[in-house]
Design brief:
This protein is of the alpha/beta class. The chain has helices at about 10-15, 30-45, 75-85, 95, 115-120, 120-135, 150-160, 190-205, 215-225; strands spanning about 5, 20-25, 50-55, 90, 140-145, 165-170, 230-240, 250-255, 260-265. It is about 35% helix and about 20% strand. Helix 6 crosses helix 7 and helix 8 (about 190-205) runs antiparallel to helix 9.
């Protein structure tokens, strides 16, 4: 039976297995999250413990992003988590996660590029809260989606420096039938914009094998009615050595569809 903890004390009394796998989320769970949970369940095995955290982090919302409008439905999230095989949900308050003793972690220079350029302070907010989750849960492994690639890379770097015993396990992006990457932000899209947003993946697919992936992405995106002024960035990143999931290089993009900003990426051939 799945347990739910709201305080740090309740969490500590419910943490039973040393082989615990953490899936950090901001709630609003969808099929992308259930894939993270499924991978965590495999890693934990029958004797391990899958811990899902639900915390909408105000530190990672910029001035132009509406923290209050972010979708929240704890009861639905608990139902999804239970059905997916989570053992323990931790849904802490702000005070539990970022108390007076919690160290604020400044993101390195890479955190000011790409997403960080349009969302100043975003990754420092992410790293501060993820570090606090790691301190409280002390997982053997933490599972993160590849869709938020820059976040994944920064957390992996932080973990290597500060939490050497924690393995960061990347899980490839889950997509709907049109190829659109699943995201809680998709809830903001109209039906027309959902159709338009599916063009992001079509452009990524054709850029994957191109000699100049960035130029190809812009070209194909334009044919999908995603024009240059809608694209915040398209850039090739070299991945850390040794990751089978991430590959050697990936094309990362951010696109404005209506009022919603969507990010995606793909491994290059």
């Amino acid at each position: 039976m799945m347990q739910v903890a709201r305080t740090a004390a309740e969490l500590q009394s419910a943490l039973i297995s040393k082989k615990r796998i953490l899936v950090p989320t901001m709630g609003s769970l969808h099929a992308g999250h259930t894939e993270l949970i499924a991978q965590a369940r495999k890693l934990a095995g029958s004797d391990g413990q899958v811990v899902l955290s639900i915390f909408v982090n105000p530190l990672q919302f910029g001035k132009t992003e509406d923290f209050e409008k972010y979708p929240r439905d704890l009861e639905m999230d608990l139902s999804v988590a239970d059905a997916a095989g989570v053992d323990l949900v931790w849904a802490p308050t702000w005070e539990e996660i970022v108390g007076p003793d919690v160290e604020t972690i400044q993101a390195p220079v890479f955190g000011d590029e790409l997403e960080g350029k349009s969302r100043p302070g975003h990754f420092s907010g992410v790293l501060t809260v993820v570090a606090s989750l790691f301190v409280h849960v002390k997982p053997a492994v933490a599972v993160f989606g590849v869709k938020d690639l820059q976040q994944l890379l920064l957390i992996t770097e932080m973990s290597a420096q500060r939490f050497k015993s924690i393995e960061i396990y990347p899980v490839e992006t889950v997509r709907d039938s049109s190829g659109l990457a699943l995201s809680s932000r998709n809830a903001y899209l109209s039906n027309e914009n959902m159709s338009l947003a599916s063009g992001i993946y079509q452009a990524l697919l054709q850029a994957k094998n191109a000699e100049d992936p960035v130029a190809k992405f812009y070209e194909v995106a334009a044919s999908q009615e995603i024009h240059r002024e809608m694209i915040d960035y398209a850039q090739v990143l070299v991945m850390p050595a040794g990751s089978k999931v991430l590959g050697q290089t990936r094309l990362v993009v951010a696109v404005h569809i209506g009022t919603t900003r969507l990010i995606d990426n793909i491994a290059l051939s």
